[in-house]
Design goal:
TRAP transporter large permease protein; transport; mainly alpha; transmembrane transporter activity; transmembrane; membrane
């Protein structure tokens, strides 16, 4: 087999192995290692490239953002700050039709700006928001759909684990990726709010719910007390990066320390929960390290096989326009999204398409936002739909089936697709904060 044929077969084999349940880094690393060995008939070369991939991942300074932001997010989650911000949002929106759903979106947007995890958002708000909506006779599908849809904000609004993974794979600035994610994330949250409002007005049966007259009324001081800690943490992290006072690594360190101090002052952090946060941080960091290492050797395998160059030559030969290229790219992501998780999609498709995007003179930072949003749609679509599975498992309510979660999330997946089209059509939306 030629290197190109072997590389193509390797990509197919990687997707197949991941679909069968093989651990993602193992599938990426193992197939890439064997492919390099066969391509050049040189075992030593494959070993040396693996060593380089390992050293590049471990020695990369920006990788320090992963444990720092992960620890910060876990501290915030375990300290119950998500519930605080939800109660404030609920007090603001509760009198509106679909208001609890709006409160869930608003709280998730702010919570996402600290945790950076869709899974954390899905698990927290499944226990906080869904029972509240069911209490007031909201449609169960709408209740779980809102939580599923708004949970993806955690991967778009910075700090985001997926933005960090993309920045490491594409060799882009983590700070630039964070700033680029702010406006698209906020716009997606607004789009969700408008969708819920429209559904409450024009499709009330889908939303359900009844008038709420016993919602807790919060005074201005109570609202400040419950929101100030989380908002000040967001301001410290994103404000520090935007003004240039802090690098992303420094912002992660400062945010982790500040989040821990808040939890201690509020007496919401026990020794056990602190220990759990440290252990979970280690587990998550190690898994992402393996992902980045596997992606590094995978990228080298693609380069040796010449797949990115062949893809660019094929597109040039067929004279595909920018629109057609993006349709192919988004279509591939949506297809893979039904089978794989977001990290797998980023690791597989970015090394293939990024050289082409750079050759076209397009911004790799904008491309990263498009990639993350497109891949995140997969969190809401069957058969994988990780957020949907997390919500179902967290609720443990026989009245709500997995089918209900997927159908409830479908309108929000459609809104994400529309937002993706807007971001592709107007790249300046993603780059506006970088240009000022």
């Amino acid at each position: 087999m030629s290197p190109f044929e072997l590389g193509t077969a390797s990509v197919i084999a990687i997707v197949f192995l991941i679909y069968l349940g093989v651990y993602i880094p193992v599938a990426l690393g193992m197939v890439s290692f064997v492919s390099i060995w066969f391509m050049r008939d040189n075992f030593d070369l494959a070993v040396n490239l693996l060593k380089i991939a390992l050293s590049d991942s471990v020695m990369e300074y920006t990788f320090a953002t992963v444990p720092l932001f992960t620890f910060m997010g876990l501290i915030v989650s375990k300290a119950g700050m998500g519930r605080d911000i939800y109660e404030v949002m609920n007090a603001i929106f509760s009198k509106i039709t679909g208001g609890i759903g709006m409160a869930t979106v608003g709280a998730n947007a702010i919570f996402a700006a600290v945790t950076g995890s869709s899974i954390a958002s899905a698990s927290v708000f499944s226990t906080v928001a869904v029972p509240q909506m069911l209490k007031y006779d909201y449609n169960p599908r709408f209740a779980v759909g809102v939580v599923a849809g708004s949970s993806v904000l955690g991967m778009i609004i910075p700090p985001s684990a997926m933005l960090i993974i993309y920045s490491l794979v594409a060799e882009q600035s983590v700070g630039d990726m964070f700033l680029a994610g702010v406006v698209p994330g906020v716009l997606l949250a607004i789009a969700y709010l408008v969708t819920i409002w429209a559904a409450g007005r024009f499709a009330p049966d889908f939303v359900g719910g009844r008038h709420i007259d016993d919602t807790e009324t919060l005074t201005s001081s109570e609202i400040f007390t419950r929101t100030a800690p989380l908002l000040s943490l967001v301001l410290l992290v994103l404000g520090g990066i935007y003004t240039g006072w802090l690098t992303p690594v420094e912002a992660g360190a400062a945010g982790a320390l500040f989040g821990l101090l808040i939890a201690l002052i509020q007496r919401r952090m026990t020794l056990t929960s602190f220990k759990d946060a440290l252990l979970e941080t280690g587990h998550i960091t190690a898994s992402i390290l393996f992902l980045i290492t596997a992606a590094s050797i995978y990228s080298r395998m693609l380069g040796l096989a010449g797949l990115p160059n062949e893809l660019a030559a094929w597109i040039a030969a067929n004279q595909f326009s920018f629109a057609v290229v993006m349709v192919i790219y988004v279509g591939m992501m949506l297809f893979l999204g039904t089978l794989l998780d977001t990290a797998s999609i980023i690791l597989i498709v970015v090394p293939l398409f990024l050289p082409l995007i750079e050759a076209l003179g397009l911004s790799p930072v904008w491309f990263g936002i498009v990639t993350v949003v497109g891949a995140e749609i997969g969190l809401l679509t069957p058969p994988l739909g990780i957020s949907c599975f997390v919500i179902k498992a967290t609720l443990n309510d026989d009245r709500i089936t997995l089918k209900d979660v997927f159908l409830g999330a479908l309108p929000f997946a459609f809104v994400m697709l529309l937002m993706l089209i807007v971001l592709i059509s107007f790249p300046e939306i993603s780059l506006v904060l970088l240009n000022h």
